[in-house]
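task queued by scheduler; priority normal; single chain, no ligands, no partner chains; default sampling; output format set to structure tokens
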Amino acid sequence: MPDADHRLRRIASARVEFLERGEPADPGVPELLAASWQRSRAAGVDAARWDAPFAPDFDPGCRLARCAEPVLTQLHDDTADVDVVIALTDRNARIIQRRDSSHRVGRMLDRVDFLPGFAYAEDSVGTNGVGTVIESGQPVSIVGPEHYSEQLQAFACTGSPIIDPLTGRVEGILDLSTLAGSWSPLMHTLVKSAAKDISRNLLLDRSQAQQALFETYVRADARATRQAVFAFGESTSMLNAAAEGLFSGEEQRAIRRHASFVMTRRDRASDTIELSSGRRIRLRGTRILAGGQTAGLVVIVEVLDPAIPRPSEPTSPGGLDSSPVSTVGDARAGGDGAPGGEAFTIERLPDVAVAAPDPRARKLVDDLRRPYVPIVDGRAPAWRRAGEQLRAALANGEPTIVLGETGSGKFTLVAEVFHATHPSGRSMTIDPAQLDDAAPVDVDLDTLPTSHQPTLCIVPNIDQATPAGVAVLDRLLPVLAGTGGRVSVAVTLSDARLDADLPFRALLDHFTTAVTVPPLRSRPEDLDTIVTRLLSQLAPNRRVRLSPQAHRTIARYAWPRNVTQLREALEHALTHRPVGEIRAEDLPSYCHTSKDRPLTPLETAERDAITAALHASRGNRQAAAHQLGVSRSSLYRKLHRYGITL
């Protein structure tokens, strides 16, 4: 191949001249290659220094990988005797799968981090058979000296875009890599053909569920000529022109969160809520089921206050809205079964809260007065709606079950809503776990408040009641209901245990209303205020604040144990930095992860060691790997394994 060798020598010479002067003098350099060199130089890529970035959030099991699986398997079989490595990347140039037909070439590619999770975007590693394909939008072969980086000079890479036929969008890249001296033009034809096969599979993979969601959205959009229509799927979001024009991005996200929340257990829902901008909207949602799976939600939204203008996007630090709006979900009472906090005083009574034969109970009832602290609602529509429903239920004397995830603030919401309505009212709690057959249940009505002094009786975590405790409550609740409205009754219950076959289910016929409290992850607009309130409780009269990076870390984490866990995280941070600006590294290690699965003790120790090394090295992966005594590629794999986002 003398002509090919001569061409590559000219390219190598032109590259050296370009790196020195900035322009390829040789007219033989193809326009596509010259443009890629220019982009690489403009992006600040160092041709002599190698540093391929690792993206911990890559998804090796994504839809693209699933559709490519049979094609990659066939391609691997067809090239079993050829010195090639097959790689599949996503649309961001991150390698998500690799198949080695040649272990020799594979070992060489390992040295340049051509591994799952590493990104080969052009602005990171320069001209190559992945990033340049994305930039040019067409199949490309980059051979030897055509690579911008010296570390890639030994290889030849041929890549082709994988295009979703339905959307026309590039979903990823299929790449064949070999040694520069082994490259053949046939690879160009082979990779283009295989990429087209994957594209066909993408079209065939449009599942019954996705089709059902799309068809329902189209029908709803055709009927709702002036209303906003949204369709939300697991990885799909569609909206019509009315929705795009009426609602800001933050409002669109709020609508999605609220619709997902109210339709957790229902196939259809209709609700009226007030957005943080003050605009009231009515939404009607339908959950689309197909083939036994949930395809998504189709939501029609009507603006009830069209005169209020659409707000501009928030610009607060770390993506959190910093407007001075408080929330009722403070953390001290955010753990649903542990009353407390400075806003009100509630004493847990022994056994049943008020019992005539027990002088201790009479004294405690007299001490249950609470100074009124005005309630300020959160901004999340689902939280505000829960407060409104609870306020109405208590005002009407309806025995109420308050549902929600553990730690989401159910207890706090009940107590603050009641005392906002009845500033001079009194509160008492009954611990269902302490009730037994010996508990006194003959309530002396003289110990209860007078008609102008209402009482709230809260039974937190009713799902923890034993059969004996249920029997006690079964006798007590009718007595409280017969006080002529002087006693409001509310119980809290973890929604995860609602369907469990537990003794508390025998008490459900005593209640007429159910209110569901949203989890913390559904209230991002309230997160900044909740953090501020927690810090004021945990560190009163101290100058404590969060750094922007700590704000972002808290905003990214899902908080599976809700406000209770957030409080624990801030307590941990304050032990490291009792005053001043709390930094991201002061937060617990789990705050820097995105994995939801529980870790073993050994995995937890390894995760903590990795986060500590990253903090000590100020995020330098190479230095952290050296400190831990592992290779950089091993470190990157562990970062992905544990979902570490530092």
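post-processing summary
- Confidence is low (pLDDT under 50) at residues 314-376, 441-447.
- The chain is about 40% helix and 15% strand.
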